[in-house]
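Justification of computing resources. Each target in the renewal requires a structure prediction run like the one illustrated here; the chain below, 380 residues long, is used simply to show the kind of job we budget for.
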Amino acid sequence: MDCCLFYGRPSFSFATLSTGTLRRPIDCGLRFDRRPLIVLASASGSSASKCEFGGLNAPLEPRTPAGRLLSGVLLDDRGRFQFAAREQLEMLAAERDEADARMRLSLGSDEACLHRRIAGLKRDECRDVVEDVMYMLIYYKFSEIGVYPVPRISQCVYNGRLEIWPSRDWELESIHSIEAVEMVREHLNDVVGVRANSNVTESWAITEIERLRLCKLYAASVLYGYFLKSASLRHSLECGLYHSNFNIGDCTHVPVSETFSLESKLVAFGHSSNPRSTSVGQVSYGPVKRPKNLKHYLMGFDRETIQMCARPKSTEALNLIERYTCALFGDKKTGLIESNEIISTSFASLKRFVLEAVAFGSFLLEAENCVNDVYMLEEN
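Resulting structure tokens:
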């Protein structure tokens, strides 16, 4: 099953991403405008540089008043941010519930159609606000570890060269457990060819990658981060239940690294063979086995469980992944990648992109859970 960006965008499939120099064109289904890309600035410190890390110079701008309010609170009154976010969600939930109640009360009356339309518009409005709240919660999590997300790519490419500095590798890895960091580093090696113990010469060696291929690498790594966080929470739960009479039965082994290589078509934006499935395997009440470490635990997942953990649980989270990725790599006005130029960069910069994307996916799941405690999200 093909992966696709379908949030009002042409669809494309995740293609094979080999390591090293990446030159082969891919059939992505996007319409490219072959006009030369207008590059704006350098990440290395040009006096005209617009690739600035700081404040809220992030690719995606809040599109609702509530989102802009929270961005201001985060900058000016950080200690009040979480309270303000919860306050916005509570107001949204009340407004949506009120519109739904009026719709139900009007059933059978002449105004039923009108109130149904109003309730639908209110839900659309609330969805936009919730996506902004989730985005600001993610940005708040990045700020907690002292990392600013990479700005829009077009601001950071100069004469076809892209470099991201400082790399912030340690900070981006610090959000994961020791076992999860091992899995993240394996993911890095699989999709980029960067080893954890690479020396300086190897890390700063020049490689080339197409803009669209880098976009796909980032999106796949966001999903991997989401999966890893979801699976880690399941693992922690099972470890906590070790002394109880509950046991997850044996599953067919499917290598997780194989699933999240970009050659695989198993993981998709909201697509699976059984999108509503929530099965986690056979449940038995026999002797409980000691929980395995995280890596071996994940190797025991069947395909259905991998899909369940990797697929964003809510429509809002899915939309946010798509909007953010398009904002990071696409044209500022259209959101489309109008030029698929070859970008020269280093393995160190590619590593930064992957680590940031994995962190984004992990923070996305946390934000989704936080929002869902106050405002019931739409099931994906």
